Amino acid sequence: MRSRVKLILLLAVVSCMAGCGKGPETTAQPPKTAGDLAAELVAHAQVNDLPFFASLLDAAVSNQASQLVAMIQRSGMETNYLGRLRKDSATQARLDYHDEERNCHFQVDLQQEGADWKVRRIYFCK
């Protein structure tokens, strides 16, 4: 019986050593930035994710998602988004892609929700 108690105490000590003092594990992600959103849009465009883009377009033009994908692919968004970022207020911004040379004419409206920025909608400018 005594050896059984020692074994239980030993297991308790080992368990505590393995898990005590670590504190709660955090799974919090850093806030999403405009750069993160630009990278996300580019990634979805690279795999031709039409349903993703259709969900961000107004219903009347959601069938033009393939045109938007092509514009994003040629926009250079992955490297030039900072030059296209316009801050409208503390919680609203936009990515303006009115670029005749690259034949791009769309705007991405961004909204800050908590610490994260989110794409509110995308629309064509022409």
Describe the protein's topology:
Elements: H1 2-19, H2 34-46, H3 50-54, H4 65-75, H5 77-84, E1 85-87, E2 92-99, E3 104-113, E4 116-124
Antiparallel strand pairs: 1-2, 2-3, 3-4
Helix pairs in contact: 2-4, 2-5
Quick structural summary:
The protein has 126 residues and is an alpha+beta fold. The chain is built from five helices and four strands; from the N terminus they run αααααββββ.
What does it look like?
The chain has 126 residues and is α+β, with helices and mostly antiparallel strands. It has one domain. 44% of the residues lie in helices and 24% in strands. It has five helices and four strands. Helix 2 packs antiparallel against helix 5 (77-84). The termini are far apart. Residues 4-20 have low confidence and may be disordered.
